[in-house]
Amino acid sequence: MLASQAIKRIFHRSWKPLVRFNHGKAPTAIESIKKRIEDIPIENYRNFSIVAHIDHGKSTLSDRLLELTGVIQSGGNKQVLDRLEVERERGITVKAQTCTMFYHDKRYGKDFLIHLVDTPGHVDFRGEVSRSYASCGGALLLVDASQGVQAQTVANFYLAYSMNLKLIPVINKIDLDHADIAQAEDQIENTFELPKEDTIRVSAKTGLNVKEDLLPAIIDRIPPPTGCLDKPFRALLVDSWYDSYVGVVLLVHIVDGTVRKGDKVSSAQTGKKYEIKEIGIMFPDRTPTGILSTGQVGYVVPGMKASKDAKIGDTLMHLGREQETEVLPGFEEPKPMVFVGAFPSDGEEFKALNDDVNRLVLNDRSVSLKRETSNALGQGWRLGFLGSLHASVFRERLENEYGSKLIITQPTVPYMIKYYDGHERLITNPDEFPDLAERRNKVQAIQEPYVEAIMTLPQEYLGNVIKLCDHNRGQQTEITYLNMTGQVMLKYDLPLGQLVEDFFGKLKSVSRGYASLDYEDIGYRDSDVVKLELLINGSSVDALAQVMHSSQVERVGRAWVKKFKEYIKAQLFEVVIQARANSKIIARETIKAKRKDVLQKLHASDISRRKKLLVKQKEGKKHLKSVGNVQINQDAYQAFLRR
Ligand code: GDP
Ligand code: MG
After folding, report:
1. Ligand 2 centroid – CA 141 distance (Å)
2. How far does the centroid of ligand 1 lie from the alpha carbon of residue 82, in Å?
3. For residue range 240-296, what is the model confidence (pLDDT) as tens digits?
4. Is the Cβ atom of 14 under 6 angstroms away from ligand 1?
5. Which of 31, 84, 210, 439 could lock onto 120 through a cystine, CB 3.0 to 4.6 A?
6. Does the CB atom of residue 80 touch ligand 1 within 6 A?
7. Burial track 474-494 (b if 16+ CB lie within 10 A, e otherwise)
């Protein structure tokens, strides 16, 4: 059951490699690479990826493999194929994600052509993993000997298993003093039913056993690709990125046939036609070999104008031979699941910022962007993200780059409104939430998105974590003791809306950092959610409204009015701050009018002047009042939202 769910969940990755160009390689070097590939039969191709929980050593192991096969020079911890860390730190991406290697296996006296695809283990980028799986015959399931099986290990296992990949269990970090190899092997056998005898023990750091045991296992256990050279050419579009010199670059897996530079191809999904300008392998940079054939994973430069024409999962075919070519099953398009509003702060121009925001989004194909207008904050944008991590990474990036220039609202998830007349509406903005009258008369049910969360943790934190999940409206579905040593796996159905509220941070803090989390969409469920609004002198500030479960409304409402009061300076008239849900006021705070003492400097005798001044003050008040809540400095909104 989980396996089928796993297939359903498919995401785009959200960063683009900036690939160094390899035309620097001497033509003779490229010729010899070409010759070497030509001499290797498809039976000697091995396409695989490494899957693991974050920090279990994927990138380090990739480095060792690239060194041992002579792709890169040995020495140092380079993480040549790593991107997520850099992405997190600097919001940029530096390296290609896939690499071709040549390996001469002395046992057989033969050359092998190996494609390694490194994958980020994080949940929001699961699509990355599944897409790379689609071009692989197998995967190394890497487990840190000092940590054992963790949440992403489990989730990635299900995905790989569901895609029929041959899995090689690998225990890493056996050089560590506190490595508990026996325990890790136990967990792998108990959790995944992969026999202990099949496990390979390595140290990616020192390289121990990588050459001796791991490379031979890759050759012996991972099956070669199954395509057919004589069939019409077809390729699966696995990934794409934008290169400022050559434009759109596609990473493709050649399923059948052969394709060459200059060939004309067409896309099954868009029907558009292209002529291949450049073609080759990632080694580790773009290395133009002029040809790719069945079973290989490589790149093509199609002279494509827009990145959005590169549909992940698309099939490329030879122009004119579409009728005889079977289109590949492809992938499901990912849908944004977390949304925020962004608005220019005081004094910033929408127009100028619009270009910036659009540019930022352009680099990240998986972000959706729409115009939006707010009563308090004016014209802005609505941004959609794949998941809560994706949203927070991007939001951090916006804040770092546009800090004071943008006001960013609280994240929200989509809600499904089901009407009595049978139609449905998906809303991604609290502003679209049906009002009480509509709810009473027309709405049959409101649903919110749920996920199945997998958590692993040491038993001593079980109580804390269960409490946290209950507090976040979770429903326990499974509890499994991974082995005798006290590692537990918990499964909960949780509302995605709760996850967005820094659930991961809270989980880490109640487990002293030991618990790990992974999750997967499981669809929409009926829910008693309402819209909570913040009112200022009676009018609702739309950009601050939030949809939440009715059980949370009271607590959040009280906190809101209290907090907002802190940021409002006293005005010349009374300001009433209220929280309202379902047409009912939940909480209220008042800021007393500040009576500017305009009379202070006057002598008591100067009565006419005194009267005049009082009248003037009254008019001033009237003027401010007529402007109403807009008098609030936008800094206040910004401070309120930055909690
Ligand atoms: P990834 O997130 O799975 O790509 O993990 P990394 O390759 O970035 O490794 C995470 C951390 O573990 C880094 O600090 C590595 O240096 C360290 N590491 C990886 N493999 C080993 C190993 O075999 N032994 C030891 N002691 N540390 C390792
Ligand atoms: Mg890594």
Report:
1. 14
2. 12
3. 777 778 888 898 999 999 999 999 999 999 999 999 999 999 988 889 999 999 999
4. no
5. 84
6. no
7. beeeeeeebbeeebbbbbbbb
Ligand 1 and 321: CB distance under 6 A: no
pLDDT band for 347, please (50, 70, 90 cuts). low
pLDDT in tens, 281-320: 998 888 999 999 999 999 999 999 877 788 877 899 999 9
Of 582 and 366, the one with more pLDDT: 582
Q: Is the CB of 509 under 6 A from ligand 1?
A: no
Mean pLDDT of the chain: 83
| Residue 162 labeled ligand binder | no
Ligand 1 contacts CB of residue 164 (under 6 A)? no
Is residue 88 in contact with ligand 1, taking CB distance under 6 Å? no
Give the span between the Cα atoms of 342 and 348, in whole angstroms.
12
Centre of ligand 1 from the C-alpha of residue 59, in Å: 7
Out of 205, 208, 516, mutate this one to test ligand 1's pocket (max ligand atoms within 8 Å of CB): namely: 205
Distance 87 CA to ligand 2 centre (A): 11
| pTM, full prediction | 0.72
Q: Whose CA is nearest to atom 19 of ligand 1?
A: 57
Strand locations in 398-528, DSSP E? 406-408, 415-419, 424-427, 443-458, 475-481, 487-495, 516-526
User: Would you give the distance in Å from CA 290 to the centre of its chain?
Assistant: 34
Distance, in Å, from the CA atom of 528 to the CA atom of 105, rounded to the nearest integer, reads 62
Burial class (CB in 10 A: 0-12, 13-18, 19+), 68: middle
Fold of 530-641: Alpha-Beta Plaits (3.30.70)
Model confidence at 575, in pLDDT bands (50, 70, 90)?
confident
Ligand 1 mutation target, pool 54, 56, 60, most atoms within 8 A of CB: 60
Could you tell me which CATH number the domain at 415-527 has?
3.30.70.240
355: part of which helix (H) or strand (E)?
Answer: helix 350-362
Instruction: Kindly report the protein residue whose alpha carbon is nearest to atom 25 of ligand 1.
Output: 173
Q: Is 40-221 a domain of CATH 3.40.50.150?
A: no
Asked if domains 234-318 and 415-527 share a fold, the reply is no
pLDDT reported for residue 10 = 27
Ligand 1 atom 11 nearest Cα: 55
Domain boundaries defined on the chain: 40-221, 234-318, 338-408, 415-527, 530-641
Fold (CATH) for 338-408: Alpha-Beta Plaits (3.30.70)
Fold of the domain spanning 234-318:
Elongation Factor Tu (Ef-tu); domain 3 (2.40.30)
Q: At 492, list the tokens.
A: 């909960």
What is the rounded CA–CA span in Å between residue 303 and residue 300? 9
